[in-house]
Amino acid sequence: MWLLHFPSGKSMDQSKDKKPKIEAGEDGKDRLSNLPDALITRILSHLPIKEAVRTSVLSTKWERKWMAITNISLDDSLLNYGDRRFKKAYFMNVVDNILLRIGSSSIEDFSLACRGKYPECRVSTWISAVIRHRVQRLDICLLENEPFTLPRCLMTSDSLRDLRLDGCCQLKVPSSTRFSSLKFLSLERVTIFYLCGTADSTEILLQFPVLEHFSCRDCKWLNLKVVSIDSPALKNFTMRSSSAFMKMRRLDYPLDLKFNIYAIDLTTLVYYGDFSEEFTLPTPLGIVDADVNVGYDYISSNLNWERQLGLRAYTHLQKLSGVRYLTLVALTFKGVTETEEGSLTMVPKCIVSSLKFIKIRHFDAKGFDSLNFLLKHARVLETIHITFIESWKLKQRQRKKIEKFKMKILAMPKRSRSAKFIFSLEKFR
């Protein structure tokens, strides 16, 4: 009988004194072992992998039961070894042994979190092994690893339903890629580039026949000018860029990356960034909920740049014709409204005819121009929710300033007389 040992912080003598055993019921029968194998597998699959493996010492009957588990979560930060080199070697041995001995023909959920640096070939082997087990949900987090290319089997799997990648990963894609079974895709700090990119061929097509949720945060799209996403079932599209990520790019980042989104069922759009990307959205557009956060927090007070950024936000908002629920930061149209409103030749249709609820986050003195623009043109607006940043210790002077803001806002003219204001504090994240 073999056994994977997981460090528990107890000495070997203590472990011997407390040998695990199965408690019998009142009638003296081992009811746990008599449960159906399918039920035992389901129970073990919901235990931490360490506890599931430890059941193999209960009896010879239990020696291989854990090998049928369908949910596996491995995290190198949970090991107690103090020496970093031994910890890494031990973790690799544990992962190798588990994937070698697992007997499940299909793994439902596999999660791998590596905070240390591991050989690319080793990590690729693990991912490939899981794909061969027809994994349905795969979550890979590589925080300190050297950038490496993910195995191509990720893109050809017909069992993968949910894919989450976070960290130093590179995804090489050909000109056309079809993810046949994905319903949920989340990419964070991932680099995507064309497999055979040349100066004349910088366009890729990503096909997702059943995808419903697409999320992308701080991702690099290298050597690409056009990314087309064909996803007829897509409902939620999210693209976020953190301040640190935007600082890495030049402030005059050219609009040379275009996203063509073919998603007739798209209803929710979330965008946090500086509109360095250009979007082509489906027509007719069914988006009813949009969250737009323009990245002003990392730029200097440059009116020309603010105006350019405001125009980008304004241009994209024109494409959201049927939005009823809109979340913005206070400075969305800064640099446009405060110079010459005449430059806005056409008010976005959603503001005029469909917008019923708007939330303006992180409001301050610089946001009155944007708010005035919205109130002036929103005809069917019912609710305006305005949040102010809450510091860890809100001083009395800040409270008075917020109260003055509220009074000034309440006195502003509104196109929709029935619109009501809601004010709240929000912690800055």
Summarize the structure.
With 429 residues, the protein is α/β, with parallel strands linked by helices. It contains 11 helices and 20 strands. The strands form 2 sheets. It has a 15-stranded parallel sheet that branches. Strands 6-8-11-13-15 form a 5-stranded parallel sheet, with no helix packed on it.
What does this structure look like?
- Helix 4 runs parallel beside helix 5 (120-132).
- This protein has 429 residues and is of the alpha/beta class.
- The radius of gyration is 27 Å and the shape is elongated.
- Mean pLDDT is 78; it is low at 5-20 and 338-343.
- The strands form 2 sheets. It has a 15-stranded parallel beta sheet that branches. It has a 5-stranded parallel beta sheet with strand order 6-8-11-13-15, with no helix packed on it.
- It has helices spanning 12-17, 37-45, 49-54, 84-101, 120-132, 153-156, 243-247, 303-317, 349-353, 368-377, 396-410, and strands spanning 71-75, 109-114, 137-142, 148-149, 162-173, 176-178, 184-194, 203-207, 213-217, 220-222, 226-230, 236-240, 257-262, 268-273, 277-280, 289-294, 325-329, 357-361, 383-390, 420-427.
* Cα gyration radius (Å): 27 Å
First and last CA, distance: 51 Å
Average per-residue pLDDT, rounded, comes to 78
Q: What's the total number of strands?
A: 20
Give the class from helix and strand content and strand pairing. alpha/beta
- Beta-strand proportion: 25-35%
Uncertain segments of ≥5 residues (pLDDT<50)?
Answer: 5-20, 338-343
For this structure, the quaternary state is single chain
What global shape is seen? Answer: elongated
Total individual domains: 3
Q: Please report the number of helical segments.
A: 11
Question: What can be said about the biggest beta sheet?
Answer: 15 strands, parallel
Helix content: 10-25%
Pfam family, one: F-box
Region (Disordered): 6-30
Domain F-box: 29-89
InterPro entries: F-box-like_dom_sf, F-box_AtFBL13-like, F-box_dom, FBD, FBL13/AtMIF1-like, LRR_dom_sf
